[in-house]
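User: Sequence in, structure out. Go.
Assistant: Echoing your sequence, followed by the structure tokens.
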Amino acid sequence: MLGGWSFEPEVYDFIVKNLPFGSIIFELGSGAGTGVLAQHYTMVSVEHNKKFVGKYPSTYIHAPMNGHWYDVGTVKSNLPTKYDMILIDGPIGDQSRNRIGFYENINLFDTSKMMIFDDTNRDGERQLFELVLAKVGTNRKNQAFKTFSVIYG
């Protein structure tokens, strides 16, 4: 079920309309949305909470928290070589700090891919989106929706 702790149905609708079935989604944070997306996509999920590792059809990277973000060494040494989209929906926690780790480690990721930032209706996640957009180039297509924002093209 989508919504609540998971991303909203609008995120799923956007993905289905803009990413061909069978594509690889690399996600930070996993949950019920992982299970829904796994029906049409190959999922690779970074997850800090052992209770969620293996819960849904995904290749999991268990990366415990190290301070305010995932253990960078674990993420770096387990990154997939290929993916078609990045979904930033974790880690959970303090809305102003935790996801900023994506920006602080942006050099690890292929930012030429579509990137979806969930929860940008919250200040911290919106600031993360704006920082990443400024870093990767404001000439890229981007859209802000009610609860999420996207960089692509």
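User: And one key feature?
Assistant: The chain has one domain: 9-67+77-90+99-152.
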